[in-house]
Amino acid sequence: MGMLEGKVALVTGAGGGIGREIALAMALAGARVVVNDVGASLSGRGETSATPGEQTCRIIEQRGGEAVLSTETVAEWVAAQRIVATALDAFGRIDIVVNNAGILRDQIFHKMSPDEWLSVINVHLNGSFFVARAAAEHFRRQESGAYVHMTSTSGLIGNTGQANYAAAKLGIAALSKSIALDMGRFGVRSNCIAPFAWSRMTSAIPAETDEQKARVSKLQAMGPEKNAPLAVFLASEAARDVTGQIFASRHNELFVFNHPRPVRGVHRAEGWTPETIAGHALPALRDHLAPLDRSPDVFSWDPV
């Protein structure tokens, strides 16, 4: 028996890349899968197509699994409810939600338009909330359920030209922690994965300078399928005591991230003025200030 035998999994953005690989892996692990994908472009603009999701369903069925397609958007509350209803109508229950759907509209901050901001926030952050919330009542009633959300080192660490994406992805990490805190008493778990992979989402990374080309070359060596085993594990009963955590999968490496905590404190009995902060507090705290890192600065070695 597979690790997800008898479970029903909903995977958003499952028409390709990481989402497809997670859907396929969960089906191989025994889950019946709702494949959700609107079939839009990377930016979310233009016409949509059911074809990507249909292809994922077809692969699952060819391998002996069960899958059903949903082409609803995650970015609207009513549509998210319909996505969850697809699982209930087709399979009678829902056990796993993988919030993977996303779009990119990269832009340097001082040139970013309100539409570029809102569109990314709506799909990534609002979409993760809507789908998770739509499943929450069913998880609560059955006193079980697992959420796996996709965050990103662009939010956890930082990146240039991605204020919308970084804000959404860091927000997803906080959302996941809140779900873990609020729903733990119902036997519901919530965790995040920061995936590394060459996929449609990363294919938009510029490759013009020698440094950029080298970075892209490293990413191309990391297939999206490398993230699927971690997602299956986190959704399974083998991870029943793991919740509120942030993991990363980078080729053959796995990481667990810490959460922000105070690293140094100073106290002054008289209280603080702007002048004493400048003269006393800042010198004491300076060595502990976080550097202005980007994700490639922290994960600077070749994937192994």
UniProtKB/TrEMBL annotation:
Task: State the PROSITE patterns in the record.
Answer: ADH_SHORT
Keyword terms: Plasmid
Indicate the segments forming the Ketoreductase domain, all copies: 7-204
The record's listing under Gene3D superfamilies reads: NAD(P)-binding Rossmann-like Domain
Question: Which Pfam families does the record match to this protein?
Answer: adh_short
Q: Does the keyword Nucleotide-binding apply?
A: no
The UniProt entry's sequence similarity note says: Belongs to the short-chain dehydrogenases/reductases (SDR) family.
The molecule here is called 3-Hydroxyacyl-CoA dehydrogenase
> Which species is this UniProt entry from?
Methylobacterium aquaticum
